[in-house]
Amino acid sequence: MQTTINSSKQAMELEDQYGAHNYHPLPVVLAKGEGVYVWDVEGKRYYDFLSAYSAVNQGHCNPRIVNALKEQAETLTLTSRAFYNDVLGAYEKYVTEYFHFDKVLPMNTGAEAVETAIKVCRKWAYEKRGVPENEAKIIVCQNNFHGRTTTVISFSNDEVARKNFGPYTPGFIKIPYDDIEALEKVLKEEKNVVGLLVEPIQGEAGVYTPANDFVRRAKEACHRHNALFIADEVQTGIARTGSLLAVCGDCSCENKCERQPTYTKPDILILGKALSGGVYPVSAVLADNEVMEVIQPGQHGSTFGGNPLGCKVAMAALDVVQDEKLMVNARKLGKLFRERMQELVEKSDLVKLVRGKGLLNAVVINDSEDSSTAWDLCVALKENGLLAKPTHGNIIRFAPPLVMTEEQLHECCDIIEKTINEFKK
Ligand SMILES: *Cc1c(COP(=O)(O)O)cnc(C)c1O
After folding, report:
1. Are residues 332 and 352 in the same domain?
2. Is 273 considered catalytic here?
3. Are residues 172 and 266 in the same domain?
4. Is 2 inside any structural domain?
C-alpha cells in the first residue's frame, strides 16, 4: 500500500525507519521545485543553493527538459543496446559536436562514467601504448571526489568513504592537488603511468580552485610522458563555473569554448549531473577516435546507457544551456556573489574567506573542521529561506541554479548576510 505524506516530520520518520542511513540530510523535506526555488511539504519556499550538487543548473523542472521527457516517455523509453533506437545516433552526433569530440560512450551516473573513463584509459594503455598487462597506473589527486563505486573509493582519501570497504582496487597513485612538480615527478619516476584523472576544480573537497595554468600544464606534462589527461567535469561542467567546461579556463565567449586560447581539451572528458538538468540520470564519456576505438562490442556497457529517454532529455538540457547563455549568467552572477561575500568576510569574524568560479563557490567558516558551526549556520539559513549544505566540516558550498536573476542573487546575499550577522555560536 502506498503512503500519503502529509508532513515533513512524517516523511523524515519514514526515511529514518525504512531507508539505509547512508546520508545525513538537512532537516527539510522538499515537495516541489521550479527554477531557482523549491518548496517543502508545508509550502514554505526556499532558494536552492545546492542545485542537487550542480545537477540542476538549468533550474528545477525546466519546462523544455520536462517536455522532452514527457514526449519521449510516451513514445519509447528503453530498448537496451541489443537493438538500435532512433534517438541515440542523433544524440551522439549532437553531444560530440557540442563538446568537440569524435565519439561518446553513454552511461547513466557520474561514478559509472568515471569507471568507464578508467577502463578506456587502461585499455588504451595496453593496446596502443604497449604497457605490459595489469601494469597500468593512473594518477589521481588527494581529496578527490569521483563517486562511490568500489574502484573509485579505492583511490579516495576520505576515510568515511573508504573504511571497511576494502580490499581496494590497485593501480592508482595519489599526488597533491594543484601540484605540477609532484605530477612531473611521478610521471618521470614511475613506470607505466598512463593517465591523470582530475577535477579541474575540486567540488566536494570544498571548491578548491587550482592555479590558472594548472589544467594546461597538467595536460602538457601528461602528453610529454604519453599519458592521457582525463577531466572529471561531472560537477564543474556544463556552464557551472562560467564557461561551458571548467577546462575552458577564463573565457569570454558566449557559447562553445574550444576556440578560446585558454581551452585545454581533455583526452577523455567525463560528464554527468547537469547533462540532464537533474531530470533523469545521464552521464557520458567523450574522447576522440584514437582513444575511444579501443572499446569493441561486448567489452563495456550498461542496460540503460544511451536509452532514448535519457538522450532526449540530455539534448534538451544542453539546448537550454546554449539558448539561455547560462555560462554568461554564471560568470556574471558569480563575480557579484563573491563581491558580496567578500564584504561579509571583511565585516564578520564568522566567515574566513570566499572562493570559487562562476556559480560554484564556497565560504569557509571561521571554526575548526569538526565544529558544528557550518551545519548550524545551514540550519539557520534554511529557517531564513535558503538551502545550502556544508561540505567537509567548516566549508559551505553555494551553487544555485544558473537561471537565477541578478535581483534574486542580491536577495539571497541579503539572506546570507542577515543570517550570519544574527548567528550565535
Ligand atoms: C557527483 C560527482 C561524481 C559522481 O556522480 P554520481 O552521479 O553521484 O555517481 C563524480 N565526479 C564528480 C566530480 C562529482 O561531483
Report:
1. yes
2. yes
3. yes
4. no
User: What separation in Å is there between the alpha carbon of 3 and the centre of ligand 1?
Assistant: 31
Residue 404: which of 65, 67, 57, 61 has the closest Cα?
Answer: 57
> What is the atom index within ligand 1 of the atom nearest the CA of 281?
7
For range 7-22, the mean pLDDT: 98
- Contact in structure between 145 and 203 (CB atoms under 8 Å): yes
- For residues 410 and 333, give the distance between their C-alpha atoms in angstroms, rounded to a whole number: 9
Residue 139, in any domain of the structure: yes
- pLDDT at position 259: 57
Q: Domain check: are 405 and 289 in the same one?
A: no
147 lines ligand 1 (CB under 6 A): yes
Q: Is 40 in the pocket of ligand 1 (CB under 6 A)?
A: no
Residues 210 and 297 reside in one and the same domain: yes
Q: In the annotation, is 232 catalytic?
A: yes
Rounded to two decimals, what is the model's pTM? Answer: 0.97
354 closest CA partner among 368, 367, 340 = 340
Stretch 386-392: mean pLDDT: 93
CB of 237 closer than 6 angstroms to any ligand 1 atom: no
How many domains are there within the chain? Answer: 2
Q: What is the domain range of residue 110?
A: 64-323
- Position 370 scores a pLDDT of 86
Candidates 22, 54, 114, 143: which one to mutate for ligand 1, based on the most atoms within 8 Å of Cβ? 114
